[in-house]
Amino acid sequence: MSVLLETDGLDVFHGHLQALHDVSIGVDEGETVALVGANGAGKSTLLSTLAGAHRPRRGTVRWAGRDVTALPAHRRVRLGVSLTPEGRRLFPSLTVAENLQVGAWKARPGAWNVERVYEAFPLVAGVRDRRADALSGGERQAVAIARSLLANPRVLLLDEVSLGLAPVVVDQLYGSLTAIRGEGTGLLLVEQDLQRAMEVCDRMYCLLEGRIVLAGRPGELGRDEVVAAYFGLRGAS
Amino acid sequence: MTVAERGRATAPVARVVRLDRISIAALCGAAVLFVALAALPFVFAGPVQNALTTVFLLATMASMWNLLAGYAGLVSFGQQAFLGVGAYTLLVAVRAGVNPFAAVPIAAVVSLAVAVPLSYGLFRTRGAYFAIATWVVAEAFRLLVITVPALGGGEGATLPPTGLDPVLRTALTYWTALAVVTASLLGIWLLLRSRIGLDAAAVRDDEQAAVAVGVRASRARRVPYLVSAAGFGAAGAVLFLANLRLEPASIFNVNYSANAFFMALIGGVGTLEGPVVGALVFYGLQFFLADLGAVYLVLLGLLAIVVMLVAPEGLWGRFSRWTGVVLFPIGYRLRAGGVHRGRRRT
Amino acid sequence: MTQALVQGVLVGGQYALFAAGLSLMFGVMRIVNLAHGALAVAGAYLASTAIVTLGVPAPLAIPLALVVMAGAGWGLQQLVLERTMRSGEFTTPLVTFALSVVIGNLLLMVFGSDVRSIALAGLETASVPITSTLSVGWISVLVFVAAVVILGGVQLFLHRTVLGRVVRAAADDGATAALMGVDHRVVFSAVTAFGLVTATVAGIAFGVQSSFDPNTGVLLLLFAFETIVIGGLGSLWGTLVGGIVLGVSQTLAAAVDVQYSLLAGHVVFLAFLFVRPRGIFPGTWQ
Q1: Does domain A3-231 have CATH number 3.40.50.720?
Q2: Where along chain A do its domains lie?
Q3: Cα B234–Cα B240–Cα B242 angle in degrees, nearest 5
Q4: pTM of the entire structure?
Q5: A91, A108, A128, A131, best to mutate vs chain C, most C CBs in 10 Å
Q6: What is the average pLDDT across B109-113?
């Protein structure tokens, strides 16, 4: 298993505020990695930086060994990085089908196409001709994931999968994620629900105030340990 | 001692300062300058007076444009409409026998009156739409005037002979221009220091928030608009007096608004001193480069673009920000101070 | 009366062509380009100079002018508008306004204030008789057809092609579109280039049918703006309707007295702006 996407000593700022301090993580080929942490810990910033939407002040982002820190966002899709952004960010004046088309525009060759996506995400198939601004939360999330999937990424970055959604819907989404993992696609997912994150991932990182405070395999980490790291309680890491 | 008395005796009081030493000095300086300028016709001949008349009018237009844009947040490309209204009002008044110089305030009042109904329509628009609408209104006025033969139609009109000695006429025109620019600057300053000025700035910055604290947004916009109309009306009347000729294509030309915009921008939108600085820069450019024709306008436009992209506060704005100097302050500043002998200054 | 009506409709096509670029730029980039008219006139001068001074035949000169203006549009977006768009909501209108002054005065310096016209080997005065009392100019019809074709084409492009959807996506959310491989700067530059090309076509058509001078840009901008406000920003077809309403207002008023022509157009515009500011076909731009 080779490391596909990794960062080294990332320092990322929002204006004068430092959001990430010396962050180094990695995602191997085909791995599912979970990124957990409280609100404001820097998880979305990290994902944005990996996707090229944000420039780090220091540190590097590497793809398959190659330094891509300076590569602009719109060129990373071709490499195989695809981000489902926080807040879903569908194109509101386009229909679901049109949103998917845009997602597939710079697609790499691969297993995912529109038909397969409709199979894997029945939620999406049901609303394919509806305008994106007329969807429920669960439908939006499904469409957002499907849209990034159509680029046939080697690593899919998912920001906040379950936020604001009913458990039933989240179950459905995680069911679809199984299909994605089955294709061998790497996943880096941000998840507020610790339970689900630990159930589904191969490895996890915990972020607190912009720093990695815990890293390891869910089997090796105790729940209490993770919770302590999550909240920054004394005695953690 | 009551709690309140004890509080007053021991707590440091922050004074609210509206005029500091620099400003008082500047005001005195301005008064001296005014006297000097008023005495000027006794020392310098016609051409100097005419040049200064032009500068005064430029400063008036720049300041009045700035009042609208910088303080009320309304960008207008159509203030020339009121130049025309003022000028044609003067024409009608003089033909009716009114003394030409006494007719200037009448021109201002009529422009204000015209602005009232216009404001109700125009304020239904915002931003670029408002700007274009004002421009179209000016165009409409121009086209309307052309259809009225009594006003000279497309050919324009000439100021009826005043019967005055040319030297005296030039001096009187000069003094009128000085009066107009002084009244304008003073009026703008007082307006902005008043409640309405504060309201206008609040509405400009965030209308919803302002309305939420009880600011009457429409009044806060309307008063600057009316004052600006009056100012441009007076300026238009004086323009006519100075040029003796009035042509629709000339007085209703959008260049007046464009130049006012450039002057205010380069000097510093949103400051009182800025438009005056801008007017001086503009006149200087015009003076030194006029021989080269339209070049100075090209340079001015490019300068404006550079300023907008690089230094949006303009020349005076930058200076003021670096040094903290505000000659004619509009706002309220707090000065930390000790207990002030029982009496609180506000 | 019918002649005036038909004339007005045809002129409306020309206005719609002017307005198309402005409307597109607003819809995709949410900016108002006040240099639109000045640029259209600059394009007309370009074509005219190529034909008259350089002796280039018109069928070559006009496409050449269009290519140059497309390049100018691309450059405008990359160098100027990218910056103004990030600056503040007023910056783009103000900067483009200053730009229009600069362009207008540059044209004045280079070409003088003489009025000029573009000759197309007599085509400009050729007319097509429709009935015994009604005839229309060839060019007018050509321009109207071009307007319909271009507006329809753009509409089809935006709504029926993948690339069009990519453009609309970039318009909705440039940052997210980047995540899908869309370089929004390229998209916006292409839109600006296209806007200028359509404006130049309209400018050249104007130059053929009547005459122009460095100040014509002002008039054209106002016409384009009025067309958009009257028609509404809802759709490009709205732009066509807006142009027609404006054109007909002008020609009907001209039938009464030529002096009232432009005034009528302005009055109709102001009426719409004050009473129904969202135009005939309101709705979010699609």
Answers
A1: no
A2: 3-231
A3: 100
A4: 0.85
A5: A91
A6: 96
